[in-house]
Amino acid sequence: MTDRKKTYEELRSARWMAPDDFRSFGHRSRIMQMGYAPEDWEGRPVIAILNTWSDIQPCHAHFKDRVEWVKRGILQEGGLPIELPTLSLSENFVKPTTMLYRNMLAMETEELLRSHPVDGAVLMGGCDKTTPGLVMGAVSMGLPFIFLPAGPMLRGNYAGQVLGSGTDSFKYWDERRAGTITKEEWQGVEGGIARSYGHCMTMGTASTMTAIAEALGLTLPGASSIPAADSNHQRMAAACGRRAVEMVWEDLTPDRILTEAAVTNAVTVAMATGCSTNAIIHLIAMARRAGIPLELDDLDRIGRATPVIANVRPTGKGYLMEDFFYAGGLRALMKNLAEKLDTSALTVSGRTLGEGIETAKVFNDDVIRPLDNPVYHEGSLAVLRGNLAPDGAVIKPAACAPEYRVHAGPALVADSYDELKAIINDEDHPMTPDTVLVLRNAGPQGGPGMPEWGMIPMPKALLKKGYRDMVRMSDARMSGTSYGACILHVAPEAYVGGPLALLRNGDIVELDVPNRTLNMRVSDQEIAARRAAWQPPEPRYGRGYGVMFSKHIMQANEGCDFDFLLTEAGPKVPEPAI
Ligand code: FES
Ligand code: MG
């Protein structure tokens, strides 16, 4: 039985619906226009369902139906469901990159909730940026909410091979470019790699971010691992609806859930899953919206103390999210990790994280490893600093060949993606496996939007000789399903004059992952001389959203939020006048 801390008159929606005045007459007559009767709203919390469905969002294709299950749960518990469609941010189709629009979704989420007569929310997301976008906005608004993860799609399958999203596309693409598979085989991979609705089923950005949402306490226990096509997902959706109504009565607002302990738990879980490099940016952005000043160094520190125990591609070798679910899912992983978590953290369920994982079990300890038999001995992400990245850069050491973790080699620099393409397609390029291939002007402002160009494709000149990895460096991001010796998120970015802008062909780049350093072997005097000669590039935009984006976007180490959206940017936004 829900502990009612609020009366109906105290609910936010009652300000719109209850008063005996002219404005409320307008609201009531207009909701009656849609066929509702007073019994539908009187005494009931109104729950917004923010649905990131669209006709071109394959990861959320089931949300058109799944939302009906959420509504059913809300009605069962005595609430009134209101579906509000939002930007759907389809990772594959939205160009130049969904990252350009994550903050737009966050703004939309916050303002939709603020401007409508709603008391709480269910957020439906899962494809990469949708999770942080929805969470950031809802945290800033502060209404009770619950996150409904889309769930991973089924394993890919082609010619008896299990295929993983992204990861295997990159692998087979390298083989196609090396000429070792036929066009027909390639088409077979195309039809088999994504064969149900749901988000990418590797431990890419989507699976990482929904796991983070669960570890933060923002989903029902176990919700993030349920495959989209499993009927448990419908039941979970209805349960989200019921629980959202209860949360409104309990006044379970996000500030009670998103504490420092919850954020630390989420970082720990992210590291143990072998998380996507994108998670770093989103974790920082989400934590800061909750007023918790998470820094890159916190992530590195927690990473060093947390082994990767999810044996899921791309960091792990064999398995995919469907296997992870059958092996016990995130609850089981957190159970193995419990000694490193603050299990007293509160979750949207109204119970603690510890209570949520109490009965969890591991059913396959090759998929979900014990702490003493990890996939990788420390967390999958490392933060590098040095004269090339004074504000930090990241690398996924577990996903790169061990011989590249300490490396020195000459830079080969591309100033744009077109320049890069010419280099990687030149079969006779005189580069060597020691070369450090660099792409710059691909950061938050330069990209613009920091596109996922950071897993620079292996150049044909090296593929031809049998090489499948080399050190690559950029101020871009890379897909969470990527792998290789890729240094990413170099900050500050080249486009705003970060030292990466000053690097020249042939300069020796020194990478030392164990010592967390990234330097160019160039003297301070020479760097100063190059800086004095550096000319800032033309602005990317002259009008439109891009102008606002370029003016307010922060660097990768700060989470790429807009400066004016930070909690400390100004006083709390007032409730709208009615
Ligand atoms: Fe949507 Fe990968 S494309 S999660
Ligand atoms: Mg992605």
From TrEMBL:
Q: Which GO terms describe its molecular function?
A: dihydroxy-acid dehydratase activity; iron-sulfur cluster binding; metal ion binding
Quote any Pfam family the record assigns.
Answer: ILVD_EDD_N
Keyword flag Iron-sulfur: yes
State the EC number(s): 4.2.1.9
The chain's coiled-coil residues are none
Which first-to-last residue range defines the signal peptide?
A: none
Q: Where is the Dihydroxy-acid/6-phosphogluconate dehydratase C-terminal domain?
A: 366-560
Keywords for this entry?
Iron, Iron-sulfur, Lyase, Metal-binding
Metal-binding among the record's keywords? Answer: yes
The record's section on InterPro entries has:
Dihydro-acid_dehy_C (IPR042096), DiOHA_6PGluconate_deHydtase_CS (IPR020558), ILV_EDD_C (IPR056740), ILV_EDD_N (IPR000581), IlvD/EDD_N (IPR037237), Sugar_Degrad_Dehydratases (IPR052352)
Q: Which family does it belong to?
A: Belongs to the IlvD/Edd family.
Q: What is this protein called?
A: Dihydroxy-acid dehydratase
Organism field: Acuticoccus sediminis
